[in-house]
Automatic annotation (TrEMBL):
Biased composition (Polar residues): 100-113
Protein name: Uncharacterized protein
The organism's taxonomic lineage, starting at the top: Bacteria, Bacillati, Actinomycetota, Actinomycetes, Micromonosporales
Organism annotation: Micromonospora zhanjiangensis
Region of interest: Disordered: 80-119
C-alpha cells in the first residue's frame, strides 16, 4: 500500500510489482495537518474494508486505487441548543424547566436499577 499515486508510472517499480504478483493498493493524501491525516486514515480503513474481500476472491493480481474520504462539513452536524434545541435536550422550550422526556431506560432494568437510582 502506498500514498504514491505515481508509483506504477516508475518503470522499475512497476516491473517488480508485476513480477512478484502481489496486489498493489494506493490512495491519495491531499494537504497536511490533522484533517489530511484523518482523511488518509479514513480512506485506508473504509477502502480496505470494502476492497479486501474482492482481493481475497481475485484470481490473480489486482491494482487498487482507494477513493478519498474527505473531511468536510457534510461529515457532521452542529446544533446550538440555545437557538434550536433538539427534542431530547433538557429544558427544551422553556429555559430552566426540565424536559418532559425522560432519559431512556437501560434494556431490561427498572428505574430503581438504573445508574441514576442505585439501590
Amino acid at each position: 500500500m502506498t500514498a504514491d499515486l505515481n508509483q506504477l508510472y516508475h518503470e522499475n517499480e512497476c516491473k517488480l510489482i508485476r513480477k512478484h504478483g502481489f496486489h498493489h493498493v494506493r490512495f491519495q493524501q491531499v494537504g497536511t495537518g490533522a484533517a489530511a491525516t484523518a482523511s488518509a486514515i479514513a480512506t485506508v480503513v473504509v477502502g480496505l474494508t470494502a476492497a479486501l474481500p474482492e482481493l481475497e476472491a481475485a484470481c490473480g493480481q489486482r491494482l487498487v486505487l482507494l477513493k478519498s474520504v474527505r473531511s468536510n462539513k457534510s461529515q457532521f452536524e452542529i446544533v446550538d441548543p440555545v437557538v434550536n434545541p433538539p427534542p431530547y435536550w433538557p429544558g427544551r422550550g422553556q429555559p430552566g424547566k426540565p424536559s418532559a422526556r425522560q432519559t431512556p431506560r437501560q434494556r431490561g432494568k427498572t428505574p430503581t436499577e438504573s445508574p441514576r437510582h442505585p439501590r
